[in-house]
Amino acid sequence: MYFRSTANNGYSGDLEIALIPEWFRTEILKEELDRNGVLVEKANVSETEKFALLFEFDGDVNAIRHVLYNCSASRPSIESETKEDMIEPGTETLSLTADPREDGLVKSRTGDTTSADTYANWYKNVYVPQAKGETPKPTGH
Q1: DSSP 3-state helix, strand, coil percentages of the chain (rounded to 5)?
Q2: Which stretches in the chain have pLDDT values below 70?
């Protein structure tokens, strides 16, 4: 007898963006603003705040919307570019991990039968899956 099983342990990868918003640095990465408005990173912060990441891929002809639950992020990389003939924006990169929640939920995405209301309100609140036949929960407008 032979048994094979697969496990969904979540996702991991890098997120590269032009500039990490200050609210994300303070609320999620736990950086502190001092009285002069300077962001300060301290070594005694052992764990960042968990969050949900809602996104879609640029150029996706189906414009599928995704949400990864229970995400954590590492400190962003520090990079810089020298001035050259062409100016390219510098970027910041976060290493992300989306672990399964206690209930096993990892990810949701829109599909062919997603309601227009759910699709239109995707970025207003983190999507909470509905059991078939369950009355949809208000989206919080």
Answers
A1: 10, 25, 65
A2: 1-7, 79-89, 133-141
What is the β-pairing status of strands 32-33 and 39-40?
antiparallel
Closest CA to 67 of 103, 99, 107: 107
Mapped onto helix, strand or coil, the DSSP state of residue 34 is coil
- Could you tell me the CA-to-CA distances from 13 to 88, 98, 127 in Å, in that order? 23, 9, 22
What is the structure's pLDDT at 5?
Answer: 46
CA–CA separation, 73 and 50 (whole Å): 8
Per-residue confidence (pLDDT) for residue 122, from 0 to 100:
97
pTM for the whole thing?
Answer: 0.77
Query: What's the sign of the alpha-carbon dihedral 103, 104, 106, 112?
Result: negative
Hey, what are 58's tokens? 């640029």
- The label of the residue with tokens 């301290």 reads 42
